[in-house]
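Following up on my earlier thread - several people asked me to post the actual chain instead of describing it. Fair enough. Here it is, all 262 residues.
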Amino acid sequence: MSSRIAVTGGTGLLGALVVERLATQGAEARVISRRPRPAGSRDWAVADLRTGQGVRDALAGADVVVHCATGFGRQAETQLARTVVDAARRTGRPHLVYISIVGVDRVPLGYYQGKLAAEQLIERSGLPYTILRATQFHDMLRAIFARLVRLPVMPVPDIRLQPIDSGEVADRLADITTGEPAGRVPDIGGPRVQHAGELARIFLRATARQRPVLPIRLPGNTFRAYRADGHLAAEDAVGTITFEDHLAAHHAPLGTAYRDRP
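Reply from S.P.:
Thanks for posting it. Predicted structure:
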């Protein structure tokens, strides 16, 4: 019997890709979103993870819940996860799949701390779960550079990055979703570790722009952890699509919308 799957944040960048990947495998997923159901959508549930409205009904009958929705800030991310866990407990014991970020236990950024707190909440929930950590998406890096290139000089942090294609992360999540709960699984990282300045110059070449690139060393514990490569997964560089590949495939690399896929 096929599993009944629900995807929170099913209209977001990653969530929509997970829904697409599952569909290609013959597994239809219920999209959970605050947005009204669009015409032609077969399985859609309107729910608000911030308030909890409609969440229990949205998860009813699900064997697997893929939690892709996110809230920026420590408290927001943890609250969304708590809402999902509480609703899941009331509707059965679904397999809870959570996407996190490499380095949440090493980099003291507020958003990362929220992700780590959400991981711990899920681990203590009593529900079967799988947690996957990924490095930053090409999409995010491209959108940031598209804003910075508007300046006379492109300031970039003096750190290394390991961006990964969001579609490859969606592939891994789809495989996890149709598999057995596995707890914390190996991290997934992009194919190359490169300095932010090098990635900025790749963006400039791809968009035929010329700007001086200025690496900036910022103070504080967060950027100290970044400089120590706390956010990298060099031993788990399983991605194959490079930042150059991403930019070459993108129809509007200078667009600043994060969700604008190639």
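Residues 61 and 163 are 36 Å apart (CA to CA). That should answer part of your original question.
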